[in-house]
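re: ur question from earlier - yeah i can do the single chain one, its not a big deal. heres the input i used so u can compare w yours
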Amino acid sequence: MKQYIAYMNRCIDLARMAQGQTSPNPLVGCVVVNPAGEIVAEGFHKKYGENHAERDALLKLDSAEGCTLFVNLEPCSHYGKTPPCADLIIQKGIKKVVYGMVDPNPLVAGNGIKKLKNAGIEVVGAFMENECRKLNEIFIKNQTEHKTFVAIKTATTIDGKISTHNGNSQWITSEPARQKARNLRQNYDAILTSSSTVIFDNPQMVHKTKIILDRELKTDINSKIYEQGEIYIFYNTGNPQNSERITYIQTQLKDDRLDIEFILKKLYDLGIMSVFVEAGGILNASFLPYADKFFHFVAPKILGDNSGKSCFMGETVDKISDCTDLKFESFEICEPDILLTYSK
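and the output i got, formated as tokens:
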């Protein structure tokens, strides 16, 4: 059993090597072990449209007769961008398959396991299911709820402030923390921010896809954030400017603000399966009911400004029992700062 854990952890590590590259597909790693317990092939799904993990591993072998295959997600059983992995597993002579979790995709959803068992292959699983589900939390939400996964990143002082009373905010956290935040961005299909953040901070936010909520089209398209990437601007009123990289999407209002539900539905329809929100307290609070994950950086600083801005600035709350409760996941030191990760 200890060896099984090691092999599945290796699958997870391999899968993570492609974070940010496989959407809308899941993250999958595969290990093939011979009867002597030696790893003879490894593979992972490197990019959407390329070989799945099992195919990536098995094509490195002339034969896998009598071997055991470990994979963090049930092998697919249907034709998509590539042929079914279950068929190749059968053809290569695999004796046993240990899988981490059932594929939530209704096109698979147990059919891969059934096909393997019908071919006489011993199937073990779900094995280390919690770890495997956490790895593919974005894919699971996409498949089961047909919604975009939402992560919110905040960076505050110990007393929860993101800026002084006059909007000064650079820099609360250190360079190691900011580099960690840049790395986190790359795991998501798009980053999202507000017109206020663009106007006051003029961030560059390097990413392949950017989303700006600019209700009245106040931002200057010569701002740093518009210098690269594919950009979507959600707005309500104003005159869109011509730009090859910018797509303008007129948006209805809800409670005198851009309708977040409409925006998230539109993102899903556009194929944006995950979004990383980096904004001020007002927009963060607007996304709070829809958020799945929270990355909260804390700097060892106390601002002490009674009028300083907080990372979540929503409506007036009378009772502590009305708090949004989160589940602690992990912490990481980005000296001198710390990163706390939570989920709903």
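The CA atoms of residues 197 and 223 lie 11 Å apart. not sure if urs matches, ping me
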